[in-house]
Amino acid sequence: MKKKLIILLLICIIGLIAVDTYYLNQPANDYSNKEDVSIAITGDVMFARKMPGVLDLGSPFRNVEDVVSTVDLLLINFENPATYASTPYKGAVPLKSDPKYVGLAKANENTIAALANNHIGDYGPEGLKDTINALDENGISYIGAGNNLEEASKPVVQDIKDRKVVILNYMDQDNFQEFSQSEIPIATENEPGYSPIDWDIIEKDLAEYNDTADIIIVYLHYGNEYSTSPNENQVNISKKLIDNGADIVVGAHPHVTQGIEMYNDKPIFYSLGNFIFDQSNPNTHLGMFLELDLVNDSCEVTVYPIYINGYIPQYMSADEGANLLNGLNPQCDNVTITENGTGKLVFKLD
Fold it and tell me: Which of 34, 149, 246, 318 sits at a 20 to 30 Å CA gap from 143?
């Protein structure tokens, strides 16, 4: 009997050692039992100027709602204040929309509006306050602007299913040095405005979430308008973000598409171009948006080329999509163009 007990005890000990060895050899983040999560990211969304005539007809997302409305999270760049304020603070192209239209930006039950852009302050502190109130009233989260720097630079952190998604939003203030602080206000300790590239804040935020986030997305407003390739500042900022823990960097502002680059096995999308916009320049009618699918320990990115018809996006044909992707600068060897004219790119989460 004692012999049997000893043998049984040895079997248990060996089993425990085997289990411990297995878990010790697993990566720090074990994604094998996590559910899939999907995220859509668009370029510039603008509800001002000529847009009311289109918005009165219904959702401006209607031609692409099969993706943007069905993912777990939708991130847009909301490129104007929504306010009744009448006095513009910026002389050059001030934009504003009627707050009654803000609900149309909620193309998904979980929509986040990125506000770190060069138009959010067009109607001053009142315009920003009205915009935040309108977003709150319509159940839309916001990021990238606020009543002070702490609020403006605060990341959005969401636990979706069993994955932690972290999103940060900033604008490159070096792009707009010709404008005064009142025209394009940088948030300060005590004053409202947008979230600037402040490396003390950014590095702290990235370090805080590096060990716990399943994915860290940094959405930037940077680059030169109408330039189809990134400038040196865009490249340097994007790579520094990845060096500090960002998993993917996505850009807006140029109003045209710019290329895709892999850096340290992480993707940079320098500019998605316009998404909902009323510009007349044909070059601004070509854009793309992203779907990120978190599957096990990978992020599978689908790039959807779109063209803007009547100020709202529609999918490109297979040939048109392939032409757009093949014409991007820089080109990325990691992007596979499908027979449907969409792009596919996969990178590892860590």
Answer: 34
